[in-house]
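Forwarding these from the shared drive since the link keeps breaking.
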Amino acid sequence: MTFVQVIDYETRRFDEMNALIDRWAEQSSGRRTATHTMIGQDREARNHYVDMVEFASYEEAMKNSHLPETDRMFQEMVALCEGMPKFMNLDVVRDEHLNKQLANRVFEEAAMVGNMSVLDECFATNYINHDASRAESTVVGRDAMKSDMETWRAAFDMTFEPTAQLAEGDMVTTVWNWTGVHKGSFMGVAPTGKTYYLSGSTTFRCLEGEIIEGWWHYNPGALQQQMGGTGSPYGT
C-alpha cells in the first residue's frame, strides 16, 4: 500500500530549506526509498509550508527514516523552522489520476469495445491529432479521430494492453502493446483471420476534462510486414 508522510512547518528561511532538501537527495542517492516529493506553500500564510513525501509502502518509508542522511536532514530542518514540524503518516486508500482515467476510456471503451460516443465525451471538438504514420501528420477535429478509429475497428477485433503509463501535469503517456484479429479489408489485404501485433505509445494533453491534443507513435511498417501488404492504413 502506498504510504505518504506529510510534514507541516513554518520557516522564514525557505531558500535554505530548499537547498537542504537538494543536498539530502544528492547524498542519499542509491539508498533513499522515497519515490515522489512535493512542497506546497500556503497562499494565506507565506511562511507556512507542507511537504508530502511518497513511498511504495510504510516499510519502505521506515528504511528511508533510518538512513543517516535522513537523520541529519531532520536535525538541520528543525533548526530552520519556527517551532517543531508536525508529521502526519498516511496510508493511501484511494489514488486516482483523472487524466489517466480519461486516456484509458479511449483505449478500453472506444478502441476495444467500440463505443464511439465515448470519443465525444473524451475529446475536444478541436482536438489536434499528430500521427507520424500518416501522410498528413497533423489533423484537427474530433471527427477525424472517430474516422480513424472506425477504420481500424472495421478491420480488426483489437486490444490494447498498457505496459506503462505516466501522468505529469496535463500530459498522459501510455505505452501499449496492440493485438488485432484481422476481420476486414485493411491496407489492401482481404481479411485473413490471423492475429497481428504492434507496440507503440500515445501521449494525450488534457484540459478541463477533455483531451485536446494527441501524439501516436508506432511503426505501421511492422504491421505491413506481418500482413504482407505494401499499402498504409490511410491509403497513402
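-- next protein --
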Amino acid sequence: MAQINPSILSADFARLAEEAKAVEGADWLHVDVMDNHFVPNLTLGVPIVEALGKATDTPLDCHLMIEDPDRWAPQYVEAGAGSVTFHVEAAAAPVRLAREIRAKGARASMALKPATPIEPYEDLLPELDMLLIMTVEPGFGGQAFLDIMLPKIRRTRELIGKHGLELWLQVDGGVSSATIERCAEAGADVFVAGSAVYGAEDPAAAVRGLRAQAEAVTAAAPWACGH
C-alpha cells in the first residue's frame, strides 16, 4: 500500500492550517524541521507542530534535519507527531533514541543523507518503524531528484526483506509524477511530495494521482510479492 506524505515545506506558511486541510486525503503530513546548523536552512519547531496537530486530523510525520536529535526528538512526540525521523549522521545514540521515540508512542524513523550508505546500519533496522532515503541533499525544497539513489533504495529493500521486517521505506526529495514510479519499482512505499502536491491546482487530486501511480507499479514489483 503506497502512502503519500505531502511536505508542508512547499505550502504557504501564512496559511498552514488551510494548507493542511487541502490534503486531508493524504496518509501523513510531512513536517520538515530545520535548525540552520545540520542543514543551511531554518524552518519551524515544536510550537508550530503542536498547532498543526490541532488544525488537522492527518497524522504528522516530522523529519528532523537538526543537530542533537537525541535531545530534541522526544519533544516532537510530545507535541503530537505520530512519526519522528532523526538523521543518523546527527544522532549520538540512534538505537536509544529510536526506543525512546517508540516508548513515547510514536513511530521511530531514521534518515540517511545521499552519501550515507545503508549497510553499516543493517543491525539497527529492527529498532525502526521506517527508514528514510533522501533523494536530494536535505535542506531545501524543489531540488531535482537524484537517480543515483535508486540502487540504494533497492539495497535497502533487500535488507528489509532479508530480515523479514515490516519496515516502511520512505523517499524524500524531487518526488513527482515523473519520478515516483522509479522509486516504487526500486522498493519505496512511502513518498514525500512537496511542490508536486502544493504546486498543483488541486493538491488533494495530486495526492490521489501520485498514490495511484505508485500502487500500479508496486502491484507488479518483484519486491512487493507477499508484501
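Helices lie at 16-21, 46-55, 69-78, 94-103, 150-162, 180-186, 195-198, 203-220. The beta strands are 3-6, 29-34, 60-65, 83-87, 107-112, 130-134, 168-172, 190-193.

- D.
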